[in-house]
Amino acid sequence: MTLPTRTTAPTALDGQIEQTVGDLSALHHDHTAGLLADERAALAAAHRDLGLAETAVAYHLNVLMTLSSGTHPVDAALLDRMRRTLSDLARAAAVRDDRQDRAASALDTVRSAAPVPVPADNELTPHHFAALLSLASGGTVREHLHTHRVSVRTAHGRLVDYAAFQSLEHHGLVVRDTSRSLIVGQPVALTDSGRSALLGFRRTATPQATAPARPVGAWPTPARRR
After folding, report:
1. Residues 55, 9: contact at Cβ < 8 Å?
2. Which of 45, 105, 140, 152 could form a disulfide with 185 if both were Cys (CB 3.0 to 4.6 A apart)?
3. Do residues 45 and 84 make contact, with C-beta atoms less than 8 angstroms apart?
């Protein structure tokens, strides 16, 4: 099945929505086909409206940049058109902000309806253990300035599965410094619970090897030659 290509401008919520519901093209395809539950259908509609609003903002901004590029004579007609374009841009930005708030609210509804999956009996799975182990030396959560995708990288630059990170964060095994913005990057560290869970998993996953019992009457192992 070939999914339709995107025709609207990127939005500030694209990365967060993809992390919650998956591919955006698939989301809108399923919405058009009537295959989504109510919460996700509302999110798809809100995201579509937000994309159209972002496209309008981009259009008026492009017109303003063209008018101010220096290729047109500066006269009363140009100044009047620039004033009208600024007014159109301000209205488009106001609409965009309103639709972004609506999309963010719809996203919160979807998140609350589908909580982050957690390991059974609060035990770490090997996948969660690998993510926790890779963050033992620290990491960073960062949002891309242009695509707004959120990613988690270790101190050594390796990517960490974001869903696994969310599960670890949900259980208080890792914590990030939210006093810093996502664009700059939020440092990640293990909590005391995370370090304890990591040590506990290591003990249960790597039991000490014991030497096999020697049969009665067996010759002793020859000494190693010096």
Report:
1. yes
2. 140
3. no
pTM over 0.90: no
H or E element that contains 111? helix 76-113
What is the full DSSP assignment across 31-73? HHTT-S-HHHHHHHHHHHHHHHHHHHHHHHHHHHHHHTSS-S-
- Are the CB atoms for 89 and 55 separated by under 8 Å? no
Q: Do the beta carbons of residue 55 and residue 8 sit within 8 Å? A: yes
d(C-alpha 226, C-alpha 224), whole Å: 6
User: Could you report the per-residue pLDDT of 134-186, keeping only the tens digit for each?
Assistant: 999 999 999 887 777 888 999 988 999 888 898 888 888 999 988 888 888 99
Cβ distance 174 to 165 under 8 Å?
Answer: yes
Which stretch of DSSP H or E encloses residue 163? helix 162-170
